[in-house]
Input
Amino acid sequence: MQCDLLTLFPDMVKSAVSYSIVGRAQAKGLVTIRVHNIREFSEDRHRVADDTSYGGGAGMVLKAEPIFRAIDALGQERSCLRIIVPSPQGVTFTQRLARDLSHESRRLVWICGHYEGIDERVKSRLEPEEVSIGDYVLTGGELSALVMIDAAARLVAGVVGDPASVEQDSFSVPLLDFPHYTKPHTVRGYPVPAVLLSGNHAAVRRWRRKEALRNTYCKRPDLLREASLTREDLELLSDISQEVNKEHRCVRGEDFNHESASTA
Ligand code: ADE
Output
């Protein structure tokens, strides 16, 4: 996965991608992340890359020309680039889009706007994809681009040591994850569920599946309608609904009717 990030704040981005799994993925050569300072492509000797908005109003707008120059400096045909503008107006970023980016053979380019946004002619000429990471407004596109890079990089083959952990995590299969525990087995009086210490692999697998279903039933019952459920899943869900009804916990799970759900 080859990424280029155009930003006014290169240090903010460079630091974030140097840690943990994304940092190691770059060290292994599985992911390349180049960060470009838009100011360096300014025609202006003061390296100004933004200006006031035509028509008036508060806030600054990123100028088009420095962005066009930065794109030209990548030295690639437009058809070899997949250009993304993070924006609250964009399509919503999902696990499906993360997977798609992780398989992309073109160079991925994020243009990170700040302040009031980017001169519209960048969009007219480059026709980027606009992608939102949620219905709220951030001060700039850097954090959004980092979210997308992080989510996509971990799906690149070889980046995460155990492929099973990527396959099983929330949203790869549209179920939420099961709870995880680590040592010591009792923390401030809270013990680990006994089954996890039993060494019985079949029982651990069934417990994890049930707890993933319970999490999904309680927190995101809408996902259960899309999940391909086995007969065992439906039995587990029937137990879960009785258990939570008895405990009077987890109101949202009532949105899912396990009796009318179909099996895979
Ligand atoms: N830039 C500002 N807000 C954003 C959002 N919600 N998603 C993506 N980019 C943004």
